[in-house]
Request: fold
Amino acid sequence: MISRYQRRKLVNLFNLGIAVLATIFGVFWLIWILWTTLRYGASSVNWALFTQDTPAPGSSGGGLRNAFVGSLILLGIAVAIGAPVGVLAGTWLAEFAARRKLGAVVRFLNDILLSAPSIIIGLFAYAIIVDPSGHFSAYSGGVALALILIPVVVRTTDEMLRLVPGSLREAAIALGTPYWKLVTRITWRASASGILTGVLLGIARISGETAPLLFTALNNQFWSTSLDHPIANLSMVIFQFAMSPYSNWQSMAWAGAFIAVAFILLLNLVARALLGRRNRKA
Amino acid sequence: MKVSEAARDAQPIAATADKKSAGPRARISADFLFRNLSAAVAMLVAISLLGILIALWREGWDALHHFGWRFLVSTSWNPVSEHFGALVFIVGTLISSAIALIIAVPVSFGIALFISEMAPRWLRNPVSAAIELLAAIPSVIYGMWGLLVFAPWFGNFEPWINDHLGALPGIGLLFQGPPMGIGMLSAGIVLGIMIIPFIAAIMRDVFLITPAPLKESAYAMGATKWEVARKVILPYTRTAVTGGIFLGLGRALGETMAVTFIIGNADNLSASLLMPGSSIASVIANEFTEATTHLYKSALLALGLILFVITFIVLVLAKMLLLRLDRMEGRKA
Reply:
């Protein structure tokens, strides 16, 4: 017969043990997935991957050049649209609507948009661009990705600008600085690394997105840089090649996955380092 | 036009300043421009949700109109005879998400508890970062890993599940079927792994802001760490924890690529979790490019509308629960 005290200690020990196991469980999957992409992916990376286009079904050789270039083009369109829109909207939230009801509503809706399924964003881009124009195109894919990037940038911009001390604003206003100059020259500058972090994290988020491209940019087996046509991109190629029965395609999918994961992890590390430096300075 | 209006509005103020130079007037209209441009962009972001709703409604209207309310309750999905019903996919979405939550919620709680209360300071950040990185891995890579690595491995356990869980009366029906590795259960498990970082991050954050005096008083009364977690931290953060779980659910409901790879893509309902199924997102992803007729495409977009409405409700609930905690914090500060 154990005492009440001993039983409480046992329960405590047991449950804390479970918590440790849960943490190991979580980290275990990360390691497993990273290890798999490294093992199958790194061995398939070679020079031809960057100099040749995607091979035909069942054939050997080939590379992913068109997919890399296509992905970069899509990212470029998304950032060109999404970054300015996101920064401006975030600026409005933090500088002009920090204490207004409307600001709270916009912030709320932005958070919903941030978590909305990416497949829905893709269908939206299909409905407003692809369907009226009658064909799949690179720019519709870029717009879909921009719509996913925007809420990420809005949120970080908003948060970072609100961290800028009010005294800085008051000092500028006391000197007669117009508000637009105050924002562009002082608060934007004070939070530049934070805003940049937001954009980087947004890019990391969209560079692996596949679902929104299914209905917009589609895929292209050949080299194409035309914005008006379907364009090859890494995530769609990974999807198509991984699902295929051809071993050459599958190993190429692993190589693509490895490069995508390496790129995204790198972006995350850079973003973290930027934030870390910021926090130390503050 | 806006600029001239701005100049007119600005006139009285500008007049009180230096009359000769154009400086103050130009300055004030630049302010006006900047403020309104950013406001317009922010409004655009806010109304895009409404835009999504309208666009999906318009595109899916033909199917919704054609089948009426039966679209929601019919289990038949036949592109050849053009008979479409959404029930199989709605049920598939809910079941796979439910499995994901059953796995992710307790694990996330354990992780959050470990990070916030148990881990030594030097271990806190690396473990947090590792869990957050789980969210950074693209869904298509989860799917590929799930199909080519996880499913074959998991298939080894399915005969065991068949023999033991499948033999149980009642719930045994859920666990019978061929050991293929892919299917509803595998999809749910992978989904669970994918949403752990979202739920764990919120739980960790709210556990960390639980006021120290509250915890310390419990410790001073001789409570064990588990008792503090269970009877002090959890009740204090209950709304936010629920909000975090809803946020994870929102993610799981709309997750596409990973599910498409693993769920098996069958267009019918089966009692067993080991059998292939479909979710709303997976059927859209799978069949969209094959949908050649207008009604077929419209039916898929109507499915998208249903998914959007479900996730929207879940996400609004999640945000409202989380906002309540923000307010609580604000009052304290």
About this structure: Chain A has eleven helices and no strands. Chain A touches chain B through 86 residues (CB under 8 Å).
